[in-house]
Structure prediction request, 143 residues.
Amino acid sequence: MKPIYITRRETFNAAHKLYKADWSEQKNEEIFGKCANKNWHGHNFTLWVTVKGTPHADTGFVMNLKTLSKLVKDLVIEALDHKNLNLDVPILNDIMASTENVAIVIWNILEEPVKEAGGELAKIKLEETENNYVEYYGGKQPF
Ligand code: NI
Prediction:
């Protein structure tokens, strides 16, 4: 049977700054634009967590979306919501807090717990603004 994909959507808001200390202020502004603002800024992030599998014979579910929602809320939203991504989130301390990297970190947080709950993580989609979003499908990363 071919896999089918289920998705849970959650939202959080968080502050960040994209800034490299060894670059000049001018270069930081050139590369990171408004995200380099030294006094921080926030985004209302929307997160879509997609799990793939085949419907279970008894339930018709790939994975109970209530279970998935609880995992995302407990492990991700709790860690990131109303936080400063650069300062308050240990796993991001040494990583540029770009939407790309946050999406990878979210994947890393959820991959095992989703597996333990009987699912297979397929995609993390993270929207920073209505015009900008990133998608991550897993795989080896340096962090
Ligand atoms: Ni930003």
Notes: Residues 4-136 form a domain with the Tetrahydropterin Synthase; Chain A fold (CATH 3.30.479.10). The chain is about 30% helix and 30% strand. The first strand starts at residue 4 and ends at 16. The chain has a mean pLDDT of 95.
